[in-house]
Write a structure and sequence with these properties.
One of its GO terms (biological process) is glycoprotein catabolic process. It contains 19 helices and 32 strands. It is an alpha+beta fold and about 800 residues long. It folds into two domains: about 100-310, Beta-galactosidase, Chain A, domain 5 (Distorted Sandwich); about 330-350 and about 355-785, GH92 mannosidase domain (GH92 mannosidase fold). It starts with about 60 loop residues before the first strand and ends with a helix. The structure holds 2-acetamido-2-deoxy-beta-D-glucopyranose (9 copies). The site of one 2-acetamido-2-deoxy-beta-D-glucopyranose has 4 residues, from loops.
Length: about 800
């Protein structure tokens, strides 16, 4: 497409023969994927069985405070085994619909002798028994029941193995419940007297959005002879009743209700439950289950999942020379997490009729635009283009691109309209497969031009002020659309950057006057820069002058301490979507001062030039003002590149990895956010980090001797090969480089590196060098000219 191969720095070089990456053998990559990474301590990663982007996600649910992904590996109790989950999210847990729960036998052999409500039935598990791998999750309950599970696209398969050393008449219940107990009126369930098949549905609320959603299920059982079945309400059950419609009731907690099947004792004491899922109907859930897992073959279902994961992880291999399995597991587990969410609900969208794909669980784009979607652009472009088509189709039918979306509902907007970045990033990297880019452009342009009535859910707020004053004022006056009137600084910064990415698309689509317009509005961030603003830490002047500040409608400066909402702020100020929250979202002015991804050159000038800029960026990291556990920190690790100090970016990367990212359940510094952290880790360790919306990957020394990436689009293989690689990471500074055999001094490459299969050789050493430090070596900025100018500037 427009950008591919048109950079001036891509000289017409013939590839040098030979293959420097011969040390990379192929190997079974799934041995290095541990789905339990980040499943305790707030990582909130989904630990269970799923296929890539699958709708069925089977896992044990716990009553942990950190049960957003269902299972938390922290010793909390099991409340059930459910089939729908998100991964890595904060806030309220989402989904967790339709938990099953098994008993070996009921007390006194009476159905009322089993405990039905979640709060009473929950039970502990044997910690050492927890096993998880791609497509598989299993554990032993303290009751002696061994439970393991696997999944197909819309169907979970649970295998319950009951103890054989006690009398048994197993009972399995299905609860019309979810993780956050949001069930509304009127949940229904029916159990078939002869087969035990359970069908039904219920309405629930999304975890970080507006509206409601209705999932349907179809549960079948195999392996035991049915003794009887029926329904339960609260703590009482009956075999005489087969159908139930249940109210939420009034006590702020949905009245427990569901159905059960009881079995005769059987010789191998194994019963499997197959749960089909749909957002359309129970019939469709049954059809999917019958088609996807027709014969209840656990091994076959699991093997199919393994094959899918193996295929998804095929494009990338790193050299294992000198590298231990902990480093490899850190890396590949991060990659694995980028393909759990979003979820492919194509054919399951009840909201509109369309032949386009439908994906859900964008949770949230504010997190995932930074590295997750750029990662998929390289490694899974076919899925990425289907995801983009889904975003564009969502705008076509609902009017607006989402900034966050889950469970068929609109999610809350955290700042800008970051779908603009997601679309533009793929556009500048030449992703085209079936995408209507004119429709994509119309969708992002609407974000910039029209204010939605509820901009808490989509689009942008304050556009009247934005257009008249060219910034978002603190205490804005807005009677057109409504949302929380906070975050004026971070919204100004995000809208500016979003407009830059729209300009990128406009350039590529030959919409020259639009491009000029949005390149201009992309500079509005400068209006909130107050040159004489100081910052004090513990009463001592930090010595830096010039920070963003809030500004009122009348042009008068407001005031926010630049450290408010930073990682070291102890003021207790609200920093999220509360009505009384700060003018920066989930982060401080100190951190947001670096958020001009598209015009670092202008920012560096404003902050006093490259060395002052580096001093400031060091201060941000060294004083712990930023925290790598939240996404705004990501790009700050690499922004030294823009000041001609790429070596310091490598050093920062090694400061954070593995100190803050290690392959253990507690090994993530914050919510994984649907793979946002996973992709940050993967791209940092492979040594090429994106600045999204631009055809730019910032180069640092990889954490491996070499990296090999085969583009699924072109079949070409790109390699990053190091010379003097040191497994103890003493030699982390690039001394010199070649690209396809020619000397290369720029500190970045473009996407054609991957699609053309180029070869980057990096000679490493112990000290920072002059490599990548010259004015012509810097990554591009909107405002700069000369060799580091963005392609589009030259094109016009
Ligand atoms: C593996 O790394 C060592 C240095 O750590 C190097 O001497 C050796 O050549 C490398 N082996 C291969 C096959 O590249
Ligand atoms: C889990 O249960 C199975 C079946 O009873 C048993 O063979 C296995 O040893 C148990 N595992 C652990 C770690 O307790
Ligand atoms: C729930 O079902 C009851 C009983 O059939 C009915 O009266 C009521 O209108 C239903 N409520 C909703 C919200 O559908
Ligand atoms: C599972 O299936 C695979 C592939 O069909 C086969 O190689 C393996 O032996 C099977 N394992 C079991 C336990 O049946
Ligand atoms: C934009 O214009 C250039 C030069 O005229 C042309 O080569 C290119 O195909 C056009 N692109 C689109 C998307 O129309
Ligand atoms: C600031 O004060 C806090 C609380 O007294 C202390 O923990 C922190 O180390 C101080 N930081 C600096 C840079 O002085
Ligand atoms: C501008 O508005 C702010 C907030 O209402 C007020 O505090 C300030 O005095 C006003 N400035 C001028 C010059 O009127
Ligand atoms: C693996 O290697 C990394 C980097 O050299 C090191 O920090 C870590 O301690 C090693 N881990 C193990 C388990 O040896
Ligand atoms: C690296 O720099 C240190 C001083 O910072 C110096 O002592 C050392 O000799 C340098 N090493 C090389 C290989 O240049």
């Amino acid at each position: 497409m427009f950008y591919r191969g048109s950079f001036a720095f891509i000289l017409a070089l013939s590839r040098i023969g030979g293959c420097a990456n011969s040390s990379i053998d192929d190997y079974d990559v799934l041995q290095y994927v541990d789905p339990l990474v980040g499943t305790a301590n707030g990582g909130n990663v989904f630990a269970g069985a799923t296929i890539p982007y699958g709708m069925a996600k089977a896992v044990a649910d716990t009553d942990s405070e950190n049960n957003q992904g269902g299972f938390a590996y922290d010793g909390s109790s099991i409340t059930g085994f459910s089939s729908m989950h998100d991964s890595g999210t904060g806030g309220q847990p989402s989904l967790g619909n339709f938990p099953l729960f098994p008993y070996t036998t009921c007390k006194d052999d009476e159905v009322d002798g089993c405990a039905y409500p979640k709060k009473q039935r929950k039970t502990s598990y044997v910690s050492e028994s927890v096993k998880s791998s791609p497509g598989y999750f299993g554990l032993n309950m303290s009751s002696g029941i061994q439970v393991d599970m696997t999944a197909a696209h819309h169907t979970s398969l649970f295998r319950f193995q009951f103890p054989t050393d006690m009398p048994s008449s197993p009972l399995i219940l299905l609860d019309l419940s979810d993780l956050s107990d949001t069930r509304q009126d009127n949940g229904t369930i029916s159990v078939d007297v002869t087969t035990g098949r359970m069908t039904g549905h219920a309405k629930f609320l999304p975890s970080f959005g507006s509206g409601s959603y209705v999932p349907y299920f179809c549960a079948d059982f195999q392996g035991g002879d049915i003794r009887d079945n029926g329904i339960f309400v609260d703590a009482r059950a009956s075999t005489d009743v087969k159908d139930l419609t249940i109210s939420r009731s009034i006590n702020g907690y949905p009245l427990p209700g569901g159905a059960f099947v009881r079995f005769h004792s059987s010789s191998d004491n194994t019963i499997q439950a197959r749960v089909g899922l749909s957002f359309i109907s129970s019939e469709q859930a049954c059809e999917s289950a019958e088609a996807e897992i027709p014969d209840f073959d656990f091994n076959k279902t699991y093997t199919a999942a393994v094959d899918l994961w193996t295929e998804k992880l095929a494009p990338i291999r790193v050299s294992r020379n000198g590298t231990n399995s902990s480093t490899l597991t850190n890396f590949y587990s991060g990659i694995y997490r980028t393909m759990i969410n979003p979820q492919d609900y194509t054919g399951e969208n009840p909201l509109w009729d369309s032949s386009e794909p439908y994906f859900d669980s964008f949770y949230c784009l504010w997190d995932s635009f930074r590295s997750q979607f750029p990662f998929l652009t390289i490694f899974d472009p076919a899925s990425l283009s289907r995801i983009l088509r889904s975003l564009i189709d969502t705008q076509r039918h609902l009017g607006w691109l989402p900034d966050c979306r889950m469970s068929l509902c609109k999610g809350y907007t955290q700042g800008g309209s970051n779908a603009d970045v997601v679309l533009a990033d793929a556009f500048v990297k030449g992703i085209s497969d079936g995408i209507d880019w004119e429709a994509g452009y119309a969708a992002v342009q609407r974000d910039a031009e029209e204010e939605p009535f509820d901009w808490s859910n989509e689009g942008r707020g304050g556009l009247m002020s934005w257009k008249a004053l060219n910034y978002i004022p603190v205490e804005d006056f807005d009677y057109i659309g409504f949302g929380t009137l906070t975050r004026s600084i971070s919204r100004t910064l995000e809208y500016s950057y979003n407009d830059f990415t729209i300009a990128q698309m406009a350039r590529g689509l030959n919409k020259t006057s639009d491009a000029e317009k949005y390149e201009n509005t992309a500079q509005y961030w400068e209006h909130l820069f107050r040159v004489d603003q100081t910052s004090f830490l513990n009463g001592t002047d930090t010595g830096f002058k010039g920070f963003f500040q809030p500004k009122y409608l009348n042009g008068t400066w407001g005031n926010q301490d630049p450290l408010t909402c930073s990682n070291i702020d102890t003021s207790g100020k609200s920093c999220s979507l509360q009505n009384n929250a700060a003018e920066t979202f989930e982060s401080s002015i100190w951190e947001y001062q670096f958020f001009v991804p598209h015009d670092m050159a202008t920012l560096i000038n404003l902050l006093g030039g490259p060395s002052e800029f580096v001093r400031r960026l060091d201060y941000l990291h060294d004083q712990g003002i930023t925290y790598i556990g939240n996404e705004p920190a990501f790009l700050t690790v690499f922004q030294y590149h823009y000041a001609g100090r790429p070596g310091k970016s490598t050093a920062r990367a090694h400061f954070y990895v593995p100190r803050y990212f290690n392959p253990t359940p507690t090994g993530l510094p914050g919510n994984d956010d649907s793979g946002a952290m996973g992709s940050f880790l993967a791209m940092t360790m492979m040594g090429l980090f994106p600045n999204p919306g631009q055809n730019v990957y910032l180069i640092i020394a990889p954490f491996f001797e070499s990296v090999r990436i085969t583009s699924p689009l072109t079949g070409e293989t790109a390699t990053v090969q190091t010379v003097n690689f040191d497994p103890n990471y003493q030699n982390i500074y690039i001394q010199s480089a070649t690209l396809d055999g020619e000397p290369y001094t720029k500190s970045y490459v473009g996407h054609e590196f991957f699609t053309k299969g180029q070869e980057l050789v990096l000679v490493l050493g112990r000290n920072e060098s002059t490599w990548g430090t010259g004015p012509d070596d810097l990554p591009p900025s909107l405002s700069t000219n000369g060799d580091s100018t963005l392609n589009f500037r030259r094109d016009g």
